[in-house]
Amino acid sequence: METWQLNISLIPSMAVILSSSNRMVLGITDEINQRLSLNPDAYREIIPLKVQQIKRLSRGIVILNISLMLLVVNALLSGYGVLSPKNDKVLIFIAITLFGIAIHFNVLYAIHAYSIRQRQFKKFLDPKQ
């Protein structure tokens, strides 16, 4: 029963990260569609980088959803006593490993976002570059 409660307690924090990632993807998409595409020649090198950022975040979102689903399934099966303790630990290990991989994609996004923003601001300040 303790495992069941532990899995349920992880879900809200994962949902916050998932919501944040979804919001970032929507923000980048809006930026490309509304601002950068108005002057595609000036941002020719920035737009593909932004699209790569969307891919990074989307991969993280997919993996995070799978991890979240595994935790929910594990919590349900553990709560009903259907899952053996050994299988319970394996399922939790897989879910947390996938969560770590999803966070890795979010970290990659954050690292690249800084340099992309710097290049974008330089283009904005000096369009001749």
Characterise the protein shown here:
The chain has 129 residues and is mostly helical. Helices cover 84% and strands 0% of the residues. α1 packs antiparallel against α2 (46-79) and α2 packs antiparallel against α3 (85-125). The mean pLDDT is 85.
Short précis:
The chain is mainly α and 129 residues long.
Query: Mean pLDDT, nearest integer?
Result: 85
State the major sheet: none
The percent of residues in helical segments reads over 70%
Q: Strand-residue fraction?
A: under 5%
Q: Helix and strand string, N-terminal first? A: HHH
Terminal CA distance reads: 61 Å
Number of helices: 3
Number of strands: 0
Briefly note the structural class of the backbone: mainly alpha
Poorly predicted regions:
none
Give the overall shape: elongated
Round the Cα radius of gyration to an integer and report it.
19 Å
Properties at a glance:
129 residues, mainly alpha, 3 helices, elongated
What's the structural blueprint in terms of helices and strands?
Layout: H1 2-35, H2 46-79, H3 85-125
Helix pairs in contact: 1-2, 1-3, 2-3
